[in-house]
Amino acid sequence: xxxxxxxxxxxxxxxxxxxxxxxxxxxxxxxxxxxxxxxxxxxxxxxxxxxxxxxxxxxxxxxxxxxxxxxxxxxxxxxxxxxxxxxxxxxxxxxxxxxxxxxxxxxxxxxxxxxxxxxxxxxxxxxxxxxxxxxxxxxxxxxxxxxxxxxxxxxxxxxxxxxxxxxxxxxxxxxxxxxxxxxxxxxxxxxxxxxxxxxxxxxxxxxxxxxxxxxxxxxxxxxxxxxxxxxxxxxxxxxxxxxxxxxxxxxxxxxxxxxxxxxxxxxxxxxxxxxxxxxxxxxxxxxxxxxxxxxxxxxxxxxxxxxxxxxxxxxxxxxxxxxxxxxxxxxxxxxxxxxxxxxxxxxxxxxxxxxxxxxxxxxxxxxxxxxxxxxxxxxxxxxxxxxxxxxxxxxxxxxxxxxxxxxxxxxxxxxxxx
Length: 418
Prior knowledge:
Elements: H1 2-10, H2 13-50, E1 71-80, E2 83-92, E3 111-114, H3 116-124, E4 137-141, E5 153-158, H4 161-164, E6 171-173, H5 181-210, H6 214-226, H7 231-265, H8 283-304, H9 306-310, H10 313-317, H11 330-345, H12 352-386, H13 390-401, H14 403-417
Parallel strand pairs: 2-5, 3-4
Antiparallel strand pairs: 1-2, 1-6, 3-5
Helix pairs in contact: 1-7, 2-5, 2-7, 2-8, 5-8, 5-12, 5-14, 7-8, 11-12, 12-13, 12-14
């Protein structure tokens, strides 16, 4: 059956090849978009991790351990030519004072380290306009691993502990954070909701692509069933068709992502460009996409042909499906109530906020897909009852005859707009 399925897929004439090519292109666009989303998540996470040391809590005090040393810390911001400069004033209290990441040491009094972008800006800018703002002399450049993005303007200025401890706002730290829990949680929340907003249209687009020429394939599979093919054999042939198109689409989608990645790197999702290497996918992401997309395509193909497997005569009879039930609105209403209660009562603290927001938006998106056919049917019937034009009446009747197929054609756009 595998050889027969491959033969029907690749040697089924021009129509079969066109269907394979168009489906593969649709899958490739979905895969490329999904890879870009996963890479953006990784890039934002990496960028956030590199900026964690700039956002230190200002209420810590030295540890009680006798050999512990602390650092006086004061973070402020400045501006130059419309660009923000992150300035950190530091003062060591001992030889073991904590050091920001990718600095060889803490600057002493009258010294400062700068980011690569600020170092280049200092070389081309008159000292009276910029360099004179920082006391002392430049003694080194912060490594790229300690800079959020290539355009970041950062300066770490050294002072004596006696002087900096007297400055209002300065705090004494015993350690320098390498991850910002609050900021990471906010980013994670945004990424989860963004992933949902992207993954649903991708799956809908994948389903639409694999349903191309579904009617012709249903007739072919129904004929095979009438001459003795078992449901398992028909399902296997349908799965092979879907897998071949999906595999071609996955390969093209990966190639599309790597070709367009340099252009995507210049898109400032967080307001700043990503560093080289940030916009990447790890092995787990690649395996999930490479394996998950073909499996999703197979599932969509089998669901689309369930009528043929159940009864081959159902295809030729074209029986009108039952009208969508009102219960389809239930997930959408629950999602609306869920998020409304959160807006009124307030969000919980900690990681629970991720869960409750994830559930709320998941209910909304799933509810839109589930309630769409019912809304389409109601709207079509309402139009048909109130129009006096023949063309509008026919359109309303046509929509209400198969509201699921009507809504399916625009469901991806509905989710994308949402």
